[in-house]
Design brief:
With about 80 residues, the protein is α+β, with helices and mostly antiparallel strands. It has three helices and three strands, in the order E-E-E-H-H-H. The N terminus is likely disordered.
Length: about 80
């Protein structure tokens, strides 16, 4: 896929996704990651990012970061899993 931006209609309303490397992510999600000093640019794929988020969530209970993990996992499942 050679698309730089996508519209995501999941989760209520339009959420504009940006491409960072091989990861499509919304500005809202990026801002939440920044809040926890997670640099989206250091990840080459979505699985690495989700793994690091889950590692943090194993120690701390951050609802907003849990939402990011859940959203990215759902996006990954529907867009990157052979069905």
């Amino acid at each position: 896929m050679n698309i730089e931006n996508l519209s995501d209609f999941v989760g209520g309303g339009d959420k504009f996704l940006e491409k960072h490397g091989n990861i499509y992510i919304s500005l809202e999600q990026i801002n939440i990651l920044k809040k926890y000093d997670i640099d989206i640019n250091k990840y080459s794929n979505i699985n690495e990012l989700i793994y690091d988020i889950e590692t943090i969530l194993n120690e701390y209970d951050y609802d907003d970061l849990e939402w990011v993990s859940s959203s990215l996992s759902e996006y990954n499942y529907y867009n990157n899993t052979n069905k």
